[in-house]
Amino acid sequence: MFNLILFGPPGSGKGTQSEKLIAKYNLKHLSTGDLLRSEIANQTALGLEAKKVMDKGELVPDEVVIGMISTAIDQNPDAKGFLFDGFPRTSAQAEALDKLLDLKKTSISIMLALDVSENELIKRLVKRGETSGRSDDVNEDIIRARITEYHKKTTAVADYYKQFDKVVLIKGEGSVEEIFDQICLQIDNII
Ligand code: B4P
């Protein structure tokens, strides 16, 4: 099984690149952001609670997202591999993911980390906010809060996988196609 983590700050292009990668490599796309937005759209109890946190630019509690990912993995027993997008976002989530994959006798193959400057992130998310209808993109204060949360809690996840030599940095600025080509080069190297 080939299991990829696409990593990076908010707006680094994880969702954008994931769409192209799942088509090319036939991976099951697991995006905690998409799963949470679907809970919000369906107005579930989980979604209503998550929305309050997401609207402040903060991270949803670990047990909530770990539970969602665990269910999603179990629902896809025939997957050729998983593309984790926006997960794990804390060290506790990373440790939980390793245990879940261990139960399935598999593991993370590689983490590709998209590197994008803060100015570019803000520019992209402000622009997306003009049309996306996403309440966490509506103003620059919330966008900055998300980036602060990333530095506080999420960068540690890359350190976690570095100890296993699984992290490769990808320049996340340039055209979507150029970045996609760099990502594919890394994947083709190991599959
Ligand atoms: P996510 O849904 O994961 O979203 P994201 O970080 O905003 O975006 P992404 O990096 O996927 O950017 P995209 O491709 O769309 O998280 C949203 C919220 O959910 C979090 O803040 C948190 O509250 C919660 N959450 C999710 N997972 C969680 C977890 N595991 N634990 C706790 N909480 C969790 O790109 C952004 C924009 O840039 C787009 O408009 C795109 O068109 C543009 N773009 C992409 N590539 C570009 C390029 N090369 N050049 C120019 N623009 C580009």
Describe the structure.
By secondary structure, this protein is of the alpha/beta class. The protein has one domain: Rossmann fold, CATH 3.40.50. 57% of the residues lie in helices and 12% in strands. The protein is built from 8 helices and 5 strands; from the N terminus they run E-H-E-H-H-H-E-H-E-H-H-E-H. Helix 1 packs across helix 8 and helix 4 runs parallel beside helix 5. It starts with a strand and ends with a helix. BIS(adenosine)-5'-tetraphosphate binds next to helix 1, helix 2, helix 6 and helix 8.
Number of domains: 1
Unique ligands = BIS(adenosine)-5'-tetraphosphate
Main beta sheet, described? 5 strands, parallel
C-alpha termini separation = 10 Å
Q: Enumerate how many helices there are, as a single number.
A: 8
The proportion of residues forming helix, as a percent range, comes to: 55-70%
Strand order of the largest sheet: 2-3-1-4-5
* Annotated CATH topology: Rossmann fold
Tell me the structural class: alpha/beta
CATH H-tier superfamily: P-loop containing nucleotide triphosphate hydrolases
Report the CATH C-level class. Answer: Alpha Beta
Beta-strand residue percentage: 5-15%
Morphology: globular
CATH architecture: 3-Layer(aba) Sandwich
Please give the radius of gyration in angstroms.
Answer: 16 Å
